[in-house]
Automatic annotation (TrEMBL), chain A:
<feature type="transmembrane region" description="Helical">
    <location>
        <begin position="312"/>
        <end position="332"/>
    </location>
</feature>
<comment type="similarity">
    <text>Belongs to the CPA3 antiporters (TC 2.A.63) subunit D family.</text>
</comment>
<feature type="transmembrane region" description="Helical">
    <location>
        <begin position="79"/>
        <end position="101"/>
    </location>
</feature>
<protein>
    <submittedName>
        <fullName>Oxidoreductase</fullName>
    </submittedName>
</protein>
<dbReference type="Pfam" id="PF00361">
    <property type="entry name" value="Proton_antipo_M"/>
</dbReference>
<keyword id="KW-1133">Transmembrane helix</keyword>
<feature type="transmembrane region" description="Helical">
    <location>
        <begin position="344"/>
        <end position="369"/>
    </location>
</feature>
<feature type="transmembrane region" description="Helical">
    <location>
        <begin position="144"/>
        <end position="161"/>
    </location>
</feature>
<dbReference type="InterPro" id="IPR050586">
    <property type="entry name" value="CPA3_Na-H_Antiporter_D"/>
</dbReference>
UniProtKB/TrEMBL annotation, chain B:
<keyword id="KW-1133">Transmembrane helix</keyword>
<feature type="domain" description="MrpA C-terminal/MbhD">
    <location>
        <begin position="12"/>
        <end position="76"/>
    </location>
</feature>
<comment type="similarity">
    <text>Belongs to the CPA3 antiporters (TC 2.A.63) subunit B family.</text>
</comment>
<feature type="transmembrane region" description="Helical">
    <location>
        <begin position="244"/>
        <end position="272"/>
    </location>
</feature>
<feature type="transmembrane region" description="Helical">
    <location>
        <begin position="186"/>
        <end position="208"/>
    </location>
</feature>
<feature type="transmembrane region" description="Helical">
    <location>
        <begin position="278"/>
        <end position="302"/>
    </location>
</feature>
<dbReference type="Pfam" id="PF04039">
    <property type="entry name" value="MnhB"/>
</dbReference>
<feature type="transmembrane region" description="Helical">
    <location>
        <begin position="93"/>
        <end position="114"/>
    </location>
</feature>
<keyword id="KW-0812">Transmembrane</keyword>
Amino acid sequence: MTELVEFSLGALVLLPLLAAAVVMLIGHTARRVLGVVTAVVTAGFTVPVVATVADGDAPELVLGGFTAPLGITLRGDGLAAVFLAGTALIAVVLTVFAALVPAATGEHLTPSGWRPGHPGFWPLWLGCWAGLNGVYVSGDLFNLYVGLELVGLTAVALVALGGRKSWDPALRYLFIAVLGSLLFLTGVGLLAAVTGTLDIAQARAVLEEVEDPTAGLLALSLMTVGLGMKIALVPMHRWLVPAHSAAPAVVSPILSGLVIKAGLVILLRVWLWAVPLVAEAIWLAWLLGALGAIAVLVGSVLALRQDRLKPLVAYSTIAQIGYWFLAFPLLVTEHDDAGAAPGAYSAIVALAVGHMVAKGGLFAAAGYLKLRFGTDEIARLRGAGAQYPALILAMGACAVGLIGLPVSLGFAGKWQLATAAVGAQQWWVVVVIAAGTLLAAGYLLRGIAPLLLQAPQESDHQLPDTGDETAPAAAGSKTRAEGAGELLILLLGVATIGTGFLGSWIYDLLGVGLW
Amino acid sequence: MISPVDLALGAAVLLVAGLSLVPRSRLVVTMGFLALGVLVTMVWLRLDSLDVALAEAGIGTGLLSGLMVWLAVRSPEPPGAGGMEPSPRLPWLRPAVGVVCGAVLTVVTAAVWLRVEDRLPAWGGPVEEQLPDTGVEHGITGVLLAFRAYDTLLESAILMLTAAAVMALSSTNLHQAAAPMPPVPLALPWATRLLVPALVLLGLWLLFAGSRDSGGAFQSGAVLAAALILMRTSHIDLRGLSTYLLRPALVVGVVVFILAGLVGPMLGLPWLSWDPDWAFAAVLTVEVLLTTGIAAGLYMLFLTLENPEGVR
């Protein structure tokens, strides 16, 4: 069993990577088959790791048999297990969706012009998944950086699959991603210089004995700013909306659901594991909390003002990112208030995983609608629900998770966050949560409700002339594969509700292998 | 001891760094960058870091300058040249922000520099102890291909996927490889024919010297990619190579690296474990194939400069 778990820890990264390399050599149809097979097997390797963690063990893999500080150690602790499991779910669903609906992977240029579907999606996406898993299980600071680069670079390239319009947002994303990585790398270099090791656990042990916290604090600040750029914390969020809305239908959920979570996991690793929280870092935590509050409010208000579905969902991501940072001040008040930190930590993870599932579903639905109707203007999608009942049901379920209604991880997370805030007597956090929840209900209703309304009649002609007034015109009839694709999106909607029952299980998992 | 040479070198680096940032013309900036690369390489040599110097010369300066020269020749003026102009309403704002940022950076860096105590890397001893098990004799190669082979593997994968991104941005079948190149002076093809054999030899030497001395897959790959770029710029027909060989060459390094890493679990060892008996063979095979992949990947980065929608 131990051997299987150790093998799985490595295979979670190396199997998708191997597939990413091989897939570049084979034909387009074979790519889809190999992609799905890889996804299923990789998700299978998640099981032994998560099962071991659920038993209370944190498995380790010493790569090459060289122990730290010389070699690299992979660790599967509670944080890794939760994100591995969530990622496996989303990744399998989205991989099968991309295989069924190739048009969702972007459009590629042929000598005769742009054609739907992009075979380049497969190596990039499998590489991205390898990077995500690599970040989750990494126990080494420099290796975290390499994983972050792997995720960031493939994510940028995935955006660029969306055709000519997506190249500008992709380039902008590239600049931000590289700058963020470099800031993180500077922090890593600083920590390595002060501690003489790159292993996270060993670095922490050394830092705890160093009296002067300056270096640790500077490294922490640099890494936080760098990762804040990659996670798109307000005010470093401007790249996210164009990139996530210009990306192809199946890429947007990957970016919003998974890629920014890699930054969050690294941020938690740095704050909670690598650098022992020093009293001097409290101002930074409060700054992050304030920015988080602004993100929740501003992101939600901007989402309310969008006329198109994908930017609306993208602004909603910015608002949801805010919640994770809202919990940071509660993480550091550990010293005077023992109760708040575990609750706040668990709240961040629950909110992030809840967002992973719900946003994956909602963005996939929005992208699919855009693909079918050639537009994502909310006004022109009016009445689309009649043709896509499963899709609308999925969007509704995802909205439950994003608003934070019971039963969903969004609710569990907000509940834990509010409890921690009340425990620490930080009432303003509760106010922000309440306001954010109301605003989320508003913008999601504004985005989804028009799809349910009856299509405009012949008489009311507020719409631009589309020729067919009874319903928005879908491009061609649905194939069976596309119908199956809709059911997959519905699966994500169901999962949004279903994972809501796992709140306490996640809380227990997170207790394994704490700093 | 700080010698006058070091001081002069430091001053020259600052001067040339300014030269590669301030001018408006892309050609001047590129030339400044080239000179900067040469100076930085010399700085690394003065610091006795031959490996870093080689990497800096090969990738940092050599290839990056190649890309920048190409860009400067194709479009000498930065697009929408307004990017560097002061904003009309608050002309002092940008310089002021720059000065403040620079001051803050300097103060913070200096403060940390003066207050923080450096520690020697804790891996110094273990490297010496365990190097004999890896089959290589040069410490840096040992770190790259044995102790931290996992990082190297992921980095090669990054380069491979960057090339995958290039292919994704190109039209079917890497059409950029066949796009016409701008005319060049007659001397260049002539010089290329002389230089390429020497470059190939240098690349192979860097590769095989890596197990005992400085050098290795990345430096060697950079030199080989430079040879390819030179040939392409000199209108030498590489279409056969680009169509049939480039893709397999690109992925073979990563594939074989992972498969070699899989041998460990097959024998009941952890991932990426290499038994001392055949470690040298494994390391050498992986390194040779990685070089192929790196050369192919870097050459593809050069190809991506061609706009897939055709020349504007």
